[in-house]
Amino acid sequence: MLTLIKTKPNLMLKKAINQGMRWYLAQRYKHIHAFYQNPLPVQQKWFDYLIKSARHTEWGKAHNFANIKSKEAFAEQIPIQDYESLKPYIERMMMGEKDVLWHGETKWFSKSSGTTSAKSKFIPVSDQNLIQCHIKGTWDTMSMIYNQLPDARQFECKTLLMGGALTPVEGNPRAQYGDVSAVMIQHMPQVARPFFTPDFATALHPDFEEKLEILTRLLSKEKDMVMIGGVPTWLIVLFRNILDYTGKSNMLEVWPNLQVYTHGGVSFEPYRQQFRDFFPSEQVNYFEIYNASEGYFAMQHGVDDDDMLLLMDSGVYYEFLPQSEWYKEYKKAVLLKDVQVGENYAMVISTSSGLWRYITGDTIVFTSVCPHKIKITGRINQFVNAFGEEVIVENTIKGLAKTCIVLDASVKDYTVAPIYMKDNRKGGHHWLIEWERPPADVNQFAEMLDYEIQLLNTDYKAKRYKDLALQRLKITSLPPGTFHRWLKDQGKYHNQSKVPRLANHTTYIDEILNLIK
């Protein structure tokens, strides 16, 4: 009886908190609705704020921010930047210098989790950017979830934390770096902390393999889980560990109340069927978010949508670089008012962390301009175009998803590179695939996948005509765990690391094939 007396008020308090948060998030949703109905004034507000706030910084003085009165003047005075052009400024900020790219001292840096470069990138995260963009984007996502799900219980039950670790900057212990999830965990609002698991020490544990073991034991006992988030490949590893540990047949037997999985970073399509196997119920909803090291840019608009709402009111000023401009020396971006549905753009951002006209590397396509909704199509440096075929990540994802459905297969991870013409050998594409569930006939799978990519990409189809320029794609099946072994060799074995989907060179494929020899 004493146990019941203690438990009931606690349960009633949680329900009351959830109801209070539901009301608060409903008010936030009204603001979201307002900005997507009238985005241009909101973007103008942030443009004005950014220019005014940074005019006394070293960058602002060098680029005459005090006299910039229009977006056109801004574009004329500042060329589009990449990481290498901003790197010397960022390195000085990491050493504690003030008023360099952004006013004041920046103490947090998000370590980029990509695999396309051997060297890590460190993205500044100012206090303003953290609050205005990353944390605000998280609250906006919660507002959307509560708007879409009448029975949402995120502030009554538990949500999974699966972050990275934080490390002091060598030479300036006041500053720290880590993946963006770790920075956000460190700054989580007090009101949200009781509703997350595991504890912060475990969530920020530096040894990822050891963290997986701890999470397996802890989360196997957690019955109140309602939301999870993270890169699909790493969550699949965690799920398998938990099922092996508990002896359960699927994850709903472990977490019977799960409602939401938020995903981002890589396309979810190759993993959708695997998650349905783990969670065999319509009660689990899938929400895509676009939370990169540089900012929280977009979120899925509705439960059944397959695109995302661009977040206009989050401390970011957007420009968009058409595909025809990507490889020009002097690139010309277009403004939000001029974007076209269906055209492929690279994202260009200016933020309250001092990223000025910075090209993120992500490529998007607008599916709507009223409101502005997008899909991520890939990375500007992830493509295969050795023979004029211009295959992008989106082509491979869609082709792979369709082929897997038809031939009852499931892919864990993959990467693609060209096969160059040599010694009378025709060119082609080489796919390395690690299977979750292999097809009955890999040769048949390759035949259909090749056909599907031809349907999606007319340039590829033209080069494949009668095998004149390109032969049919080749598939090499990899032993289980190969990609994780390769990531570990690259020093990128953590919960945010991702396998590059496409490369216009053979470096990655050669390294992986040498590894399995």
Helix content: 25-40%
Uncertain residue segments = 1-9
- Radius of gyration (CA) equals 24 Å
Sketch the major β-sheet. 11 strands, mixed
Strand order of the largest sheet: 6-3-7-8-9-10-11-15-14-13-12
Distance between the termini: 64 Å
Number of helices: 16
Shape estimate: globular
Say what oligomer this is: single chain
Count of DSSP strands = 20
Strand content: 15-25%
SSE class: alpha/beta
Mean pLDDT: 90
Describe this structure in words.
With 517 residues, this protein is of the alpha/beta class. Helices cover 38% and strands 21% of the residues. The chain contains 16 helices and 20 strands. The strands form four sheets. Strands 6-3-7-8-9-10-11-15-14-13-12 form an eleven-stranded mixed sheet. It has a four-stranded mixed sheet with strand order 2-1-5-4. The protein has a three-stranded mixed sheet with strand order 18-19-20, covered by helices on one side. A hairpin with a 6-residue loop joins β13 (344-351) and β14. The longest helix has 36 residues, at 2-37. It is globular and about 60 Å long.
Summarize the structure.
With 517 residues, the chain is α/β, with parallel strands linked by helices. It is built from 16 helices and 20 strands.
Layout of helices and strands, plus pairs?
Layout: H1 2-37, H2 39-53, H3 58-62, H4 71-77, H5 83-94, E1 108-111, E2 122-124, H6 127-148, E3 158-160, E4 167-169, E5 172-178, H7 180-186, E6 196-197, H8 200-203, H9 208-219, E7 225-229, H10 232-246, E8 260-263, H11 272-278, E9 285-292, E10 295-300, E11 308-310, E12 316-322, E13 344-351, E14 358-369, E15 372-379, E16 383-384, E17 391-392, H12 393-406, E18 410-419, E19 428-437, H13 442-456, H14 458-464, E20 474-477, H15 482-489, H16 507-516
Parallel strand pairs: 1-5, 3-6, 3-7, 7-8, 8-9, 19-20
Antiparallel strand pairs: 1-2, 4-5, 9-10, 10-11, 11-15, 12-13, 13-14, 14-15, 16-17, 18-19
Helix pairs in contact: 1-6, 9-10, 12-13, 13-14, 15-16
